[in-house]
Amino acid sequence: MFTYILRRGLMAILVALTVSFGTFALFHYATDPAQTIAGEDAPQEMVDDIREQYGFDRPAAVQYFDWLGSTLQGDFGESYFWKQPVVQLIKDHAPVTITLALASLSVTILIALPLGISAALKPNSWVDRFALSTAVSAQAIPNFWLGLMLIILFAVTFPIFPVSGDATWRHFVLPSLVLGASSVPAVMRLTRTGLLDVLSSDYIRTARAKGFMGYRLILQQAMRNALLPIVSVLAVQLGNKLGGSVVTESVFSMNGLGRLAVESIFNSDIPTVQSLILIFVLTFVLLTLAADLINAWLDPRIRMG
Amino acid sequence: MGSEMSTTSILDIQNLSVDIPTDSSTLHAVRGISLELNRGETLGIVGESGSGKSMTALALMNLLPPAAKRSAGCISFEGSDLTHATEQELASKIRGQRIGMIFQEPMTSLNPVYSIGRQLKETMTLHRKVSESEAEKRAIYLLEKVGLPDPASRLKQYPHELSGGQRQRVMIAMALMNEPELLIADEPTTALDVTIQAQILHLLRELQQEFGMSMILITHDLGVVSRAADHIAVMYAGDIVETGRTAEVLEDPRHPYTQGLLECVPGYRGTSQQRLGAIPGIVPAMTGTISGCAFASRCPRAADICKTDTPPTKALQQGRYFVCHEPNIQTPENTANTAREAANQTPEDSALKKGEPILTVDGVSCTFMVRRGLFGKRKPLQAMDNVSLTLNKGEVLALVGESGCGKSTLTRTIMGLQKPDSGSVTLNGRRIENLPPMERARMIQPIFQDPYSSLNPRKTIGEIITKPLAVHRIGSRQEQHAQARRIMELVGLPTRVFNSYPDQLSGGQRQRAAIGRALIMNPEVVICDEPTSALDVSVQAQILNLLLDLRDEMDLTYLFVTHNLSVVQHMADRVAVMYLGEIVECGDRDQVMTDPKHPYTHALMDSALSISPGETVPDPGLAGDFPNPMNRPSGCPFHPRCPLADQQCREQAPGPELIDNTLVQCWKAKTSGSQLKS
Fold first, then answer.
1. Residues of chain A contacting residue B101, judged by C-beta atoms under 8 Å apart
2. What GO biological process terms are annotated to this protein in UniProt (chain A) (predicted)?
3. B640: which residues sit within 8 A by CB, 6+ positions away?
4. Is the pLDDT of residue B265 over 60?
5. Closest CA to B345 of B599, B123, B552
6. Which of helix, strand or coil describes residue B197?
7. CA distances from B301 to B213, B252, B305 (A)
């Protein structure tokens, strides 16, 4: 187990470094940052001034390691647009996104797993049909439309929840439903097919021959095997949600990382955009690592590999 | 019947049927069979794939696939009728408790994510109010009983850490946790090597006697059933066609299918290299109703009445009956004679034609560096150690050994697909590595084990067979096709399958296509790698007959890799036995098989289960499992399992030695014969 963690940890660090280099290169070679800051029509002297002032005239490697060093120390630079440290910006916006992501992931799990399991237990029954049609509709309905419908129904017609904002837990109910519903189809289908696969395996036949049936057969024999792919896909879904859900945050006027990302892109706020991309990617790397470690804990074949 | 039977009978099945609805019609997997099993006895259910034997076993405990429907007049187990038991009752009172079950696939039948200990213990704690430690005690006791060394530490291991034989032992221990009255074993040894098969069957017999269990043994192997079962039921197309005491059925088979099956088994009549009796055709589709006898289309004696009227059940005595019209009664001796006559037509002396050596393997060694994990050390795996072998023109050399012994590496080296570290392979006087690949491919061709995966599913049979000609740019398209049709005729494939795809052919036909592809270039040497082990006995017989015919017609030389010793007995002129990358014994077939010099060969021959009712499964006398090639023992690689090993064997590796024309690598070879017999 220890060597497995070590190996996966090293791989994750390698990926993170590659990504950081990629992000850096993208912004320093695809655009001229000095020109961007100065504006399209700025005179050449001003651009040169900015280039010198911000240190864009130094060799690329020096700039990269300088940036990497300060990033590692938690210094993400200063936002050109908001004129405050990027760290502070992220600290302000992250709680909304993290809360929304976790709440919506719970919604996904609470709907998708029971639905997927009951569908797998009785394939081609009405439960199964219901589950599959739910999945198809959830996949077909766009996020913004579902959001608007929920607002009309539960905030306007029946004013149970607030329309917009992120002040109290009540503000999070509708957006969590919207964002959570978007992941239900993938997770539900995977649960269903994964469990169906496991239930038709030889070792489940063995377990039945030993006298297992009903919920014990599912929970004590089958579920652990079926969980492996679900853990992986949940990690990706959580990553997507933590990456800021621009549409949902916009529809419900929530001040999360998604909104921050969009605004900084529109305003060419390179340090903020760069930091956000790095954070989003690192979140994915960490979540994948976590999923792999959970799977290794679940499956001895992986951890002893 | 009455009261006397009911006191001894533990299981009585009446009129059991299993139907599986498909898209277009219904598949009748089991067609109203009746069976009876006496307490403490073993009932062997024999049949080819698709005969319904596994479905019968699963139907007993209602473990059938969800789509299958079971109907039965009565399944009386110890007086209670299981047909009316609910799922709840079956799970809580019968399954795993009073009826234990062992399945065919030890590699997939254990839950991969839980430890052996947990899987053993839960079988007991699920049904009884026992403490964890009591269950653990029982688990350790049973693991010891089934012959797993160091059982206490095994409990923490996971299935993937065990070999196939070890997993099957765990399965057996698991089935015995609650001391069931009945054990159902569905092909318990089919996936295992011969010595392990003998160990497991021997063990089952011992355990059965010790615990007074009754047993249903399902198998396709007549050798296994002849030694392990008290009664036999022969199944064909979902029906029992003949049943009775093992010795009576096997010595005096009355149904033409039973007779045909027995004639298909190499070595049944104790003669070799003559044609096997083969059952023509294949098992009929199991959908719809069968008018008349299901076997009529394949039966050599079928009369008109067989095709129209359901055959009558003819009882010979209590518990011994067969289902047949018996048109034109012919005794098995007669059919054996016709088979023998057919054999005499093929030149018998071909085996004696001692040709020049066509292929020489000289001192070949091959070591792979295997690394486990990213930071693991690279460890050597010695797949072959100083292997020497000669193949003479026109002969069949059988290469025998258990999985992991290096057979595949050797055949790959011979075909020039694997470069040896040292030593050389010479084909027709030329070093194999100096031959251009095209020429090498023309002279040496393989036939693989699995005709289901060795043919490209997206190519037609015609394309597959002509491919070698196309690669070698021989002839025009028309000529290639004409040649392919000639070859198809030669290997007994109807030319109408020329444009068919592999999945439209039966297993036997596919293997014929694979043989056709191998032979179209007119090779000198054919490497047959377990060519019949994926096939049913009746089809195996057809393919073995074909291979022997082709050898004579096309002047071929075979290297025949197999683990099936009755096939060796039937096919081979000479035999080479391989163990852990070494040829431990090599000589004439009769010499090696009847008077083995090496203790390993001795154990192998003891494990070979020929059909001999009345005899039991012998204990091969081998300790432990086939060792991991990564940890080769010092000295003689066989010493940890050898009953004769002493100090010298543990320290020094023996060299090859010629005794009575047989090449042996063993310190004890000169004296082993008398020592092992005693």
1. 206, 209
2. transmembrane transport
3. B623, B624, B627, B633
4. yes
5. B552
6. helix
7. 40, 17, 11
Q: How far is A14 from chain B (nearest CA, A)?
A: 15
**CA–CA gap between residue A8 and residue A80 (Å, rounded):** 37
Edge-first strand order for the sheet with B357-371 is B378-392, B357-371, B422-427, B430-431
> In this structure, what token pair is assigned to residue B552?
């004579």
Per-residue CA distances from B554 to B473, B549, B568 (Å)? 22, 9, 21
Residue B519 and residue B550 in contact, taking contact as beta carbons nearer than 8 Å? yes
pLDDT number for residue A44: 85
Q: Which amino acid is at A44?
A: Q
Q: At what angle do helices B194-211 and B599-607 cross, to 10 degrees?
A: 60
The secondary structure of B446-477 as a DSSP string is EE-S-TTTSS-TTS-HHHHHHHHHHHTT-S-H
What's the pLDDT tens digit per position in B642-651?
Answer: 888 888 888 8
Strands (E), B273-377: 313-317, 320-323, 357-371
Contact predicate B36/B11, CB 8 Å: yes
C-beta of residue B360 within 8 angstroms of C-beta of residue B341: no
3-state secondary structure of B533: coil
DSSP three-state, residue B505: coil
Are the CB atoms for B108 and A202 separated by under 8 Å?
yes
User: What sign does the dihedral B91-B97-B102-B105 (CA atoms) show?
Assistant: positive
* ipTM surpasses cut 0.85: no
Coil, helix or strand for B343?
helix
Helix (H) / strand (E) element for B3: namely: helix B2-8
Can you give the pTM of this predicted structure? 0.81
Rounded Cα–Cα distance for residues A23 and A256 (Å): 22
Is the Cβ–Cβ distance between A282 and A111 less than 8 Å? no
Residue extents of the structural domains in chain A = 88-197+229-298
Contacts of A200 in chain B (CB under 8 A): 65
Q: How far is B92 from chain A (nearest CA, A)?
A: 6
User: Rounded to an integer, what is the distance from CA B613 to the centroid of its chain?
Assistant: 19
The beta-strand segments (E) located in chain A are: none
Cβ atoms within 10 Å, residue B476: 8
Nearest CA distance, B609 vs chain A (angstrom): 28
Q: Give phi and psi for B361, each to the nearest 5.
A: -105, 125
Set of chain B residues whose Cβ sits within 8 Å of the Cβ of A7: 373-375
Which residues lie closer than 8 Å to A257 by C-beta, 6 or more apart? A90, A93, A94, A96, A97, A242, A243, A244, A276, A279
Of B594, B598, B596, give the one whose Cα is nearest residue B584: B598
CATH superfamily of A88-197+229-298: MetI-like (1.10.3720.10)
Which of the residue ranges B70-84, B425-439, B604-618 would you say has the lowest mean pLDDT? B604-618
Residues of A with CB under 8 A from a CB of B: 3, 6-7, 123, 200-203, 205-214, 216, 220-221, 224-225, 298-301, 304-305
- Of A194, A174, A53, the closest CA to residue A112 belongs to A194
The verdict on B374 touching A (C-beta cutoff 8 Å) is yes
What does the block give as tokens for A256? Answer: 């999360």
pLDDT of B523 reads: 92
A14 burial type by CB count under 10 A (0-12 exposed, 13-18 middle, 19+ buried): exposed
Dihedrals phi, psi of B401, to nearest 5 degrees: 175, 165
**Which chain B residue's Cα is nearest to A305?**
B373
- Largest Cα–Cα separation, chain A: 84
| pLDDT, tens digit (0-9, with 9 covering 90-100), for A95-141 | 999 999 999 999 999 999 999 999 998 888 898 999 999 888 888 88
- A198-245: pLDDT as tens digits: 999 999 999 999 999 888 899 899 999 999 999 999 999 999 888 868
Yes or no: say if B263 and B336 are a contact pair by the CB < 8 Å rule.
Answer: yes
Q: Which amino acid is it at B517? A: R
Q: Which two tokens stand for residue B384?
A: 């072959």
